[in-house]
C-alpha cells in the first residue's frame, strides 16, 4: 500500500478542483487500489482505523468522482470515512464534502447539503473565517441550495465565496461567479446571469464568437450555462451553438456518462425547438443508451427524462405508437424512483416532474 499511496496523485488537499492532467497517472494506480480494497476486505487487513489507507481512498475517490464513476467513488468514500483517525481534520471534511458532491450529481441535493454543512462546520473549526479553503465548500452549499430552490440562502453562501476569493486574488474566482450566474438564471434573471458570468476574469472579454472558438475544456460548464442563458433570452440558435460546443467538449474529455448524457439531452431539446425532429430523436436515443448502461442510482432519472422528451418528439413526427411506448416507459421509470430524502418533487404528471429527476445544473 505504501508504494501506491506514494504515487497516487493528490489534488484534493489544495481544493483546486478537477485536474485532467493527473488522470492518466491516477488510472495507472486504480487497479492497485481496487486490489488493496478487495484483499483488505477478504483478509480483514484494515479492521482498525488507518489514516493512510483512508487518505489513499480519498485521493482515488476524487479521481473516480471526476471521471463520473459515482458508485465506486461512493463505496471508497464510505470506507474512508470509517477508517479516518482524526474526524475533526480538513482531510476528513474533504471526504464528507466529496460524498456531498456525489449526492449532488445524482440528484439528491438535500442529502448533499447536509454533507456540505457538516464539512463546512469542521473546516470552520480549524480555519480562519476568510480562509480560501472554505470557499469551495461555500460554493458547493450554494449549488445545493440552488437545486433545492432556497435562493436567498444560496446567494449568501456564494457572496461569501466571491468576497473571500477577491480578497485573496484567487484564480478560482470564476467558479464563484459561474455558480452565482447559475443561481440568477434559476431565479429567472437571464440578463443578470449573463452580466455575472462576464465577471469571470477568463470570460469578461469574450464575445459569443470567441467563446465558441476556445479549446479549453474548463469552459464546457460555462458553455452549458451560457446556452441556457441564451435560451431564456429567446435566442435559440445561439443557445444551440453553445450547447453543441459543450457536447463536443464533454465527448472528448468525459466518459459516456452523465455529463455527456445531459448535453445530449440539452442539444436535443434545442433541435426540437428549431424543428429538427429527426436529429432530436437521434440524440435522445443516444442519451437513452447511455442512461440504460449506468447504475440505476445514476441513470434512472436521465432515462426517464429522455424517454419523456422522446415521446414528445415522436408525437411531432406522427409516430404515435412509438410515442406512447416511450411515454409509458418514462412514467414507469419515474415510478421506480424512490424518495429517501424528499429530493424528488413530482407534480401532476407534467414535464416538470421529469426535469426534477435530474440536477438542474450538472457542472
Automatic annotation (TrEMBL):
For this protein, the record's InterPro entries field holds: TPR-like_helical_dom_sf, TPR_rpt
What keywords are annotated for this sequence in UniProt?
Repeat, TPR repeat
- Any one Pfam family match given in the protein's UniProt record, by short name: TPR_10
Q: Which domain of life is it from?
A: Eukaryota
User: Does the UniProt entry include the keyword Repeat?
Assistant: yes
Gene3D superfamilies xrefs:
Tetratricopeptide repeat domain
Q: Key word 4Fe-4S present in the record?
A: no
Report what the protein is called.
MalT-like TPR region domain-containing protein
